[in-house]
Amino acid sequence: MPTLFEQVRANKIKSGALFAIFIILVGIIGSLFGVYYGSTYFGLGFSLIAAMVYFIIVYFSGDSIILSISGAKPVTKNEYPHLWHAIDGLSVAAGIPKPKAYVIEDSALNAFATGRNPEHASIAVTTGLLKVMNRQELEGVIAHEISHIRNDDIRLMMLATVLVGIVTLIGDIFLRSLWFRNDDRRNSPAIFILIGVVLAIFAPIAAQLIQLAISRQREFLADASAAVITRYPPGLAGALQKIAKDPDPLVDHANRATAHLFISTPFRKTRGVVTHLFSTHPPIEERIKRLKAM
Predict the structure, then answer these.
(1) Above 50 in pLDDT, residue 274?
(2) How many domains in the chain?
(3) Catalytic residues
(4) How far is CA 82 from the centre of its chain?
């Protein structure tokens, strides 16, 4: 069985491969867009330049946007001393700079971490979670989020969100352009148009599924890392048990773009094959089972 560090290294390699797939998808859609308009190089160049500009903007401001749309407010040591001390102590134990502390006024039991690197990271927790968790359980949750920061998950998931958005945007532009065909483009090769339409429709779905797969895999790794940091797996296991029993898990300001960041799905629980396929998190029962086996 691979060690924790081997799993982190393997996941980073897989992440690089998945990002290469994203870039290929952008390039293919952009090239077909160019063929449709008479210039392959124009389509390829336009898609890559647009992707780079969008990427740079979101990379440096994505965490602020995520915190803002989530309704997270910065807090001081005097306001929430137990949260402050938990983040402070566990970040030292994990060997990373202390993340900024945020609180979301919401009765749901949840938390998430965001940022582009450990030096620019933040942890946000709901007031509902702070009221329900005991000290060991809160430390388990914070250690889970700190693990996402230390394992470079926060950067990966923010970039995955960006790249999914890029693929979706370019595909949407291609589909919309078909409504404005003129006679000069009626002789465009039908096969290219057909392939372009298929890619424009299915590429965003494939990109979204890849993003969700990355998130599910890394939740297990963050759970294991949290247990190592706290040296007390029952703390996080107990927290997840309470989260699983939360009668109202809906986080008011959560949406599909930020759902994968939370420690547990911020939406009401539903069952079914399709629901599982598009789930941002592995089954919470399986996570608890793995923690109890440690």
Answers:
(1) no
(2) 1
(3) 145
(4) 27
96 exposed, middle or buried (CB, 10 Å; 0-12, 13-18, 19+)? middle
For 13-50, how does the pLDDT look when each residue is reduced to its tens digit (9 = 90+)? 766 776 777 777 778 777 877 776 677 788 888 888 87
Q: How far apart are CA 181 and CA 197, in angstroms?
A: 14
In a domain, 174, yes or no: yes
Whether 99 is in a domain gets the answer no
Say whether 104 sits in a helix, a strand or coil.
strand
- Whether residue 133 is contained in a domain is answered as no
| Token duo for residue 96 | 């990373």
Q: What's the predicted TM-score (pTM) here?
A: 0.79
Residue 103 located in a structural domain: no
Terminus-to-terminus CA distance in the chain, angstroms?
13
Distance (Å, rounded) from C-alpha 62 to C-alpha 135? Answer: 31
Tell me, letter by letter, the H, E, C secondary structure of 54-76: HHHHHHHHHHHHHHHHCCEEECC
Residue 262, domain extent: 4-66+154-292
Q: Which helix (H) or strand (E) holds 8?
A: helix 4-36
What is the C-alpha separation between 159 and 207, in angstroms, rounded? 12
CB 16 within 8 A of CB 28: no
Separation of alpha carbons 210 and 215, rounded Å? 9
Longest dimension (CA), the chain: 69
DSSP state of 262: B
Helix/strand/coil percentages in the chain, nearest 5: 70, 10, 25
Strands 72-74 and 100-104: antiparallel
Q: How far apart are alpha carbons 230 and 264 in whole angstroms? A: 20
* Tokens linked to 144: 């889970």
Strand partners, 257: none
